[in-house]
């Protein structure tokens, strides 16, 4: 899915949607590439957890499993389910690009 010059979602050429646009289109974030501000847009995540997720990723490298994500302080079972529903760990599964 891409955005045409008018900002409408289309199939084919165009820009990869980012931030709130991608979330509104129901696309999943690549947890290993999303910025702190993008992660903070997810329901129930907020700035603090987004910052911890990005810090953990920078310190340990890419998240390779959901257990890695669960080990981040503040994630817990409920947040992990939210993250699993809204993100992917593999960029190829994120519908092209980081989204």
From TrEMBL:
GO cellular component assignments: type II protein secretion system complex
Superkingdom classification of source: Bacteria
Biological processes, Gene Ontology terms: protein secretion by the type II secretion system
InterPro entries: Endo/Exo/Phosphatase_dom_1, RuvA_2-like
PANTHER family: ENDONUCLEASE/EXONUCLEASE/PHOSPHATASE FAMILY DOMAIN-CONTAINING PROTEIN 1, ENDONUCLEASE_EXONUCLEASE_PHOSPHATASE FAMILY DOMAIN-CONTAINING PROTEIN 1
Protein name listed in UniProt: ComE protein
The organism of origin for this protein: Corallococcus coralloides (strain ATCC 25202 / DSM 2259 / NBRC 100086 / M2)
């Amino acid at each position: 899915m891409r955005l045409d010059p008018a900002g409408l979602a289309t199939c084919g050429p165009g820009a990869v949607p980012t931030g709130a646009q991608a979330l509104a289109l129901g696309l999943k974030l690549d947890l290993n590439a999303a910025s702190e501000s993008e992660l903070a847009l997810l329901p129930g995540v907020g700035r603090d957890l987004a910052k911890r997720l990005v810090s953990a990723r920078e310190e340990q490298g890419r998240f390779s499993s959901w257990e890695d994500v669960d080990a981040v302080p503040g994630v817990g079972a409920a947040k992990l389910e939210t993250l699993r529903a809204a993100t992917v760990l593999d960029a190829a599964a994120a519908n092209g690009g980081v989204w």
